């Protein structure tokens, strides 16, 4: 049985649906703060559960005897800059609750998402390696770097089987993104499909690592299914598929919708984007558990415009 905390988020929604497809809807419990189960997750069990309610999370997980827990509850980069205290609390305390449950033997495998946000302005920006200088300059990035350190510590000290991916920006059509600096790359498709002009909050030449959500979900499940001895990186795996600028995604869309127009009005998120890598070296994921991306930019564009 699987529990997904933070099921209503951009990754959580798609992960619940993919896990239910694979393991049977009744075996995957979706959990989030919403009182009612959202329409798109109604094909299986849903529970209102606050990832920070230690007593409730502990008693529920101990009682239900889940084998795997996916902890996706977090504040993302842009939102976290506006709520630093709560972002640190949510991103860190929820992780300790789950790591300790696994240490006590109540969970056998944990998935916890990290991000390219763990890299900072002093990190080599192109083909950023798995091991390199990491001085994140955002609240979100600091919390993800700290979380990676704790995941590796619990693995080394207590044998907790926790696995993690440093997601790039994710592009999806089944779930709305929330508060990410990379989310311009989702909003642009909504505007193009609606026949509206798009005002981009990043400069046209801001290259960022990105991935179509289907690739990200498949990578997550492949990592969780890999034999433990193949999972050699216990902080978090670099993972990559695409790297593009707002200008390049605009041009990819314009090939399909010639009338589409874009303008660029950078805001506070430009500084966040400038502190992140432009592209990522994910050779450890490729070598350790056979990662291969399937979606390039034009394939992502056709999938997004077809399904929105
Ligand atoms: C964000 N989408 O923008 C998330 C992600 C790499 C970016 O962490 O905060």
Written description of the protein model:
With 308 residues, the protein is α/β, with parallel strands linked by helices. It contains eleven helices and 14 strands. Helix 6 (184-193) runs parallel beside helix 8 (246-254). The protein is globular. The two termini are 32 Å apart. The structure holds (3R)-3-hydroxy-L-norvaline. The site of (3R)-3-hydroxy-L-norvaline (VAH) has 13 residues, from strand 9. Residues 76-77, 115-117, 140, 167-170, 180-182 line the site of (3R)-3-hydroxy-L-norvaline. Residues 2-238 form the NAD-dependent epimerase/dehydratase domain. It comes from Fluviicola chungangensis. It holds the Pfam family Epimerase. This is NAD-dependent epimerase/dehydratase family protein.
What's the quick description here?
It contains eleven helices and 14 strands.
Report the radius of gyration as a whole number of Å: 19 Å
For the secondary structure, the number of strands is 14
Side by side, the strands of the main sheet go 3-2-1-4-5-7
Helix content: 40-55%
Spans of at least 5 consecutive residues whose pLDDT stays below 50 are none
Shape: globular
